[in-house]
Amino acid sequence: MMKLLDQILEHNKLFVEKEEYVQFQTTKFPNKKLVVLSCMDTRLIDLLPSAMNVKHGDMKNVKNAGAIVSHPFGSIMRSILVAVFELNADEVLVVGHHDCGMGKINYESLRAKMEDRGVLKETIDDLKYAGIDIKSFLKGFNSVEESVRESVAMITKHPLMPEGVPVHGLVVDPNTGKLDVIVNGYEGN
Q1: Which residues does residue 64 pair with via DSSP β-bridges, in sequence order?
Q2: Would the pLDDT of 189 be above 70?
Q3: What average pLDDT does range 148-174 have in this prediction?
């Protein structure tokens, strides 16, 4: 049985040989001057861009579990700032979704799964000595709407985010693509 990486590489060889990449060629600058932070949920990969009428090349897409900006100086915020300052994005969208796995994260259950897969209990416990609050690091949320509001606020209030950049917050239904506005970034900007 062929391993997954081998399948990917076999497909890639043919993809390049047949020049299938041509249809995806664009610049590094988003046509709609937009950066979108969304969840990594597989249901959103094709659904969200279609529901928002954005095509290949229209946006910078930053993804993580839950569409959460959890730290003001983490990699998610850095990506958003780079999109704004280096890649000409003029607006930011934070898009959470209903039925998000981050809303169901339970620290004790996740920890047990880590230990079941060989992560030592001592390793997890010793993270506190490195200043890591593992429970906070792995926490989910109770309300996707509130989580979106918190991420929008962190981006909007960030000391390096220029004034006047609209930061919107939306929640998408992963079954229908329906978007609900949680924060309209034009209001107050």
Answers
A1: 39
A2: no
A3: 97
